[in-house]
Design brief:
Elements (H helix, E strand, L loop, with lengths): L1 H28 L21 H5 L11 E8 L2 E2 L3 E5 L3 E8 L7 E2 L4 E2 L8 E7 L4 E6 L11 E7 L1
Parallel strand pairs: 1-4, 3-9
Antiparallel strand pairs: 1-2, 4-7, 5-6, 8-9
């Protein structure tokens, strides 16, 4: 009889721990945000603050990429070890994880992807506004120290 209660308590503890771990994983991957609210001009009415500003707004154009790069991460390495661009180029980088949990970061340009799991991908854009050779890397755990790095060369 005591063994049944012990087993029941252990099963409940494992289920609760598993649920907690899953909530931590979801919270970590979403940056703590489960939903985002976006207000567009179509849903704003006369009484909402900021409507006047939106009516007088100048259209914003998105940067067109000068250079498009695809980088895939797996087994503590990047598929592309070196990326060459010209200073002032807008770089569009599509990053994919083919194995494991990885991201792509280059500090000097403030460019980084989210941490992605196997099969996920993300596209980011940044302007290479400084010339030089810069290291890009995976910031997950010790991946950088294990050699998960590459070079971004920005030519003047």
């Amino acid at each position: 009889m005591n063994n049944k209660y012990l087993i029941l308590v252990l099963v409940v503890a494992v289920v609760l721990f598993g649920g907690w771990m899953m909530s931590q994983y979801i919270s970590y991957n979403s940056g703590g945000k489960l939903t985002d609210t976006v207000y567009t001009k179509d849903v704003m009415d006369e009484g909402m603050p900021g409507k006047e500003m939106m009516d007088n707004e100048t259209p914003v154009t998105q940067d067109v990429a000068d250079v498009k790069v695809n980088v895939t991460a797996q087994n503590f390495s990047f598929s592309t070890k070196e990326i060459r661009v010209k200073q002032g180029d807008t770089v569009e980088l599509t990053f994919s994880s083919a194995g494991g949990f990885h991201d792509w970061v280059v500090d000097e340009f403030g460019a980084r992807t989210k941490r992605l799991d196997t099969g996920e991908s993300e596209t980011i854009k940044f302007v290479a506004d400084k010339s030089g050779t810069f290291e890009y890397y995976c910031s997950v755990s010790t991946h950088r120290q294990m050699g998960m790095v590459g070079k971004l060369i920005v030519e003047p």
